[in-house]
Design goal:
Length: 328
């Protein structure tokens, strides 16, 4: 039997998990990498943490832990394997390193960034503090460690309101996502000063998309990520983090659903709910899509690319992330 045929044989059960989404013709192209990655994980004593936006073959076939940013941060803390491979974007790998500094954290492609993380620098945060003395800074995890280090506390889309309200103040600075800040502001009495960063994936959804889908698919349930513009979130039936959207589908099993978020999210939730009809549009995140089975395999073979953080920045950034994790 050839190498590929053996790999196909060994991964046959895994294919059963994804056959709803991945056509049989495409599987041989994945099987060899999956087989090699599973072997490398054992040899390197490594685990793979994958975000909900990773493609189905990564999410379902090689990942040990999957979830939204908050779940990945919490799980990263508990990892006792030697190596963490972060199948996601750079800020997620940095967060894992902050929370579990003794592990080697690898990201398969250093260019896997985020438009929100790129929208603000540590110097910008210092300027904001000078402009609003005494107002606490709540920083979305979609930022660099250097920006987190200038912050009082972090938040994710899953806990933003709880974090803002945990501070017991009348006014906070919330950065860098303007839309997340505006969406939270509608739900709380706390006054929110926002920055002007946007997610390049979610800012493209419009109310017109929702109107069109509601016309084409009467009765469709629309779920939106809170990085979408406020008018889009208001026109949706529910808004929440990627994990909250997935839980909504599990709890309510709507016959038809539109997830206004990254495309792989619908694929991964569809695998768990084959009877639910997932309608589009969706948008691809070019940063998330930089991670592939091929470069995960290379990362484990070569132990690259290692994520490191300047110790002075790490101490302060860790404090902001840990403070967030204490908020329930
Ligand atoms: P979640 O924390 O909801 O998974 O979102 C992360 C993200 O990057 C969304 O674009
Ligand atoms: Fe960043 Fe948007 Fe991509 Fe999430 S989807 S990683 S917020 S660019």
């Amino acid at each position: 039997m050839g190498l590929n045929a053996e790999a196909i044989n060994r991964t046959a059960l895994l294919y059963e998990k994804v056959r709803h989404i991945i056509p049989p013709m495409e599987w041989p192209g994945f099987a060899e990498d999956i087989d090699a990655i599973l072997d490398l994980k054992r040899r390197r004593n490594a685990v793979i943490l994958a975000h909900n936006y990773q493609t189905p073959e990564i999410f379902n076939c090689v990942a040990d832990v999957v979830g939204d940013s908050l779940a990945l941060a919490r799980k990263a803390m508990e990892v006792d394997a030697d190596v963490i491979v972060l199948a996601g974007v750079h800020f997620m790998a940095e967060t894992a390193k902050l929370l579990n500094p003794d592990r080697t954290v690898l990201i398969p492609d250093m260019r896997a960034g985020c438009s929100l993380a790129d929208s603000i620098t540590a110097a910008d945060v210092r300027l904001l503090r000078a402009r609003y003395p005494g107002v606490p800074v709540v920083t979305y995890v979609n930022t660099s460690a250097a920006v987190k280090a200038e912050s009082d506390i972090c938040c994710t889309s899953g806990n933003a309101r709880a974090v803002v309200e945990s501070l017991g103040v009348k006014r906070v600075i919330m950065l860098p996502d303007e839309y997340l800040a505006q969406n939270v502001a509608r739900e709380t009495e706390v006054e929110i000063i926002a920055w002007s960063g946007h997610c390049e994936v979610h800012e493209r959804f419009t109310q017109a998309d929702i109107r069109q889908v509601r016309e084409d698919y009467p009765g469709v349930i629309v779920l939106a990520h809170p990085e979408c513009p406020p008018d889009v979130v208001m026109a949706a039936d529910f808004a929440g983090s990627t994990a909250a959207m997935s839980d909504y589908v599990t709890r309510n099993a709507p016959p038809r659903v539109l997830l206004l978020t990254e495309c792989s999210m619908s694929d991964n939730v569809a695998i768990q709910h084959p009877k639910v009809n997932f309608v589009r549009p969706c948008n691809l995140c070019p940063h998330m899509k930089r991670i592939t089975l091929g470069n995960i395999r290379t990362a484990l073979e070569t132990m690259q690319h290692e994520v490191t953080i300047d110790p002075d920045i790490a101490v302060r950034a860790r404090r902001a992330v840990e403070r967030m994790l204490e908020v329930r």
